[in-house]
Amino acid sequence: DDEKTPLSAEVLWKLERAGAPVVSPDGTMVVVPLTTYDEDNESETRLWLLANDGSGAQRPITAEGSAASSPVFSPSGAQLAFISKRNEDEAGQIYLLPTAGPGEASKLTDVPTGVSGLRWEGEYLYFISSVWPEHSWEEMADRLKAEEEDHISAFTWSEMPYSFFDHYLNEDRKNHLFRIPAAGGDVEPVTEPLGMAMMPAGTGAGDYDVSPDGKHLAFVTTSTPGAVYSNGDVFLVELGKKKARNLTSDNPANDYGPMFSPDGKQLAFARQRIAGFYGDQAKLMTYSMASGDTQMHHEDWDYGVSGLVWTPDSSGFYGAIDDKATRRVYSISLDGNAPSPVTKENDYGALSIADNGVLVAQRQSALHPVRIGTVDTQSGDFNRLDAFNDEVMATVDAGTYESVTYKGHNGADIQMWVHYPPGFNPRKEYPLMMLIHGGPHGAISDNFHYRWNAQTFASWGYVTAWPNFHGSSGFGQDFVDAINPDWTTKPYADVMAAADFLAQKKFIDEDRMVAAGGSYGGYLSSIILGKENPFKALVIHAAVYDLYAQMSADFAVNMERFGPYWENPEIYREQSPHYYAKNFNTPSLVIHGQNDLRVPVGQGFELYRTLQTKGVESRLVYYPDENHWILSRANSLHWYGEVRDWVSKFAEPGGK
Ligand SMILES: CC(=O)N[C@@H](C)C(=O)N[C@@H](C)C(=O)O
């Protein structure tokens, strides 16, 4: 169709990105944050109200020019609270808006350190703020101002952790929970009087809950504050009392996600059992508020629990479950019956449930961005409520894709998504772009990726492939853990077998094959660089290239679980890509962001310098203002351009 355009990187940035929806208590309204991007590299998030009454009505409810996020309904549904930084605000504050019609948002808080992790429980709005303990708000405001004026940029640390993903942590400030009456009044500290802070980084509304009668607080924090490796535990306290009880002290690994049942009788949470292994499948736990008994449910179910919401009758949950390269809604009861899938294909997430059981979710696929709708919990049907992006997507000439299964390491079945370019002609021969996912303990689901969009790569004239190699999640715990501590052997064999499998297809030109990966995918790409491989070029983004240097990251691969390199050197010696530099000879595009604290940038420079020293054709793309991910519009378009130029140079695009 001449009128249509491919799903180019430019088109990706025209799309509006819908965040997590929240449904009103009566199920009639859904509020969703929607982020748009403009050509000046600016973004804006506004809240949209979608009617769940069959009318299709939808409208923005927050002002243009004022970012808004984290919507929560009041228990009656008459009001909506959200976080926004507007007018004279120095940091994000709580704003309130009536849901019944047009109205101005009114400001509720004036917290100099800002608010996050918002929940509305009974009469109160609860929130998290990163504060200097035992300081008044006035003192903190003065301190912030003084910091701005003293021009000292140094951080100092005497304990761990010191960084998280893309920012350094200020050790003097702690994450604490506060509450304020929704009707207005003073902010009251909740966790400070307990002498316990919340997790030092990445903490949010999912890390605490208040019982329906407003009497108890459950929250997650580390039971090893200041330690190199933290152990998240669930603590319970009667609000107003000074001592919180650790409900999970018997478990050496993380317990998280506390959620009181609607009848208040049980506290659910998720449990991992292997310390230092983020890929450990989480098990569903309940703690009885009456008896104090803790129970694990569905121990033998070979899936991890995630995205849980309680059913209104407190009999069980719905969850968004990573399931063989899809993410499905499952019904998970507490009556002993096995969990059962509600939806079939694609990728569902961000579940929100109304008091009457209306279940709202995001749904996406490789061919369409996130949509918002209700899920019929009997039939699994999705009833879409939004019309976001329909106009733009109607102009897109997308290719097709399919799930295939091939034989990987030792003949094991490996699932792989294969994407074909628009106008694909199986009688022609196409170049292959092999994509290697990160983690490694995640999976490529049937979802719409903005940073690594397989259809965008395909639209350049490549067949693209995403194998879910050994170590990927959603295919059972043994499959996940099959690559520990040896990160190399099986995934490398799986990727080679994927290339072989595709090279045998008549539509693949085996002289035009390239591979690209980020993070762990960059690790495996650098391993491939040091081994025999069929690729004409590699793209190596934010690579874990030096397992020893990875020790300085916020994720010191394998160290906690299998011991540090000075105790078990062979693990790291065998598997660190930098040790195979002698064999490097595949042209490589190396990409890294300065603010990447998950895989610190030195590793990108180390790899580039090694390639240059060895005279291997290579190019370094360095983003001084990006993190592990390339997030700004201009830099992302640049990234896609660099990747396209590099792969095109070594594997000419298009069918021949
Ligand atoms: C656990 C983790 O963050 N691992 C990184 C090395 C990684 O591979 N990250 C992936 C998921 C990414 O794309 O950020």
Brief digest:
15% of the residues lie in helices and 33% in strands. The protein is built from eleven helices and 39 strands. A hairpin with a 6-residue loop joins strand 18 (232-238) and strand 19 (245-246).
Characterise the protein shown here.
- This protein is an alpha+beta fold.
- 15% of the residues lie in helices and 33% in strands.
- The strands form nine sheets. Strands 32-33-35-34-36-37-38-39 form an eight-stranded mixed sheet, with helices on both faces.
- Bound molecules: the ligand CC(=O)N[C@@H](C)C(=O)N[C@@H](C)C(=O)O.
- The site of the ligand CC(=O)N[C@@H](C)C(=O)N[C@@H](C)C(=O)O has 12 residues, from loops.
Mean pLDDT: 97
Counted by DSSP, the helix tally is: 11
Query: Could you name the ranges where pLDDT drops below 50 across 5 or more consecutive residues?
Result: none
Shape: globular
Which strand order does the major sheet show?
A: 32-33-35-34-36-37-38-39
Alpha-carbon distance between the two ends: 21 Å
Determine the strand fraction and express it as a percent band.
Answer: 25-35%
Question: In this structure, how is the largest beta sheet organized?
Answer: 8 strands, mixed
Q: Evaluate the radius of gyration.
A: 25 Å
Structural class: alpha+beta
Bound molecules: the ligand CC(=O)N[C@@H](C)C(=O)N[C@@H](C)C(=O)O
What's the assembly state of these chains?
single chain
Count the strands?
39
Helix content: 10-25%
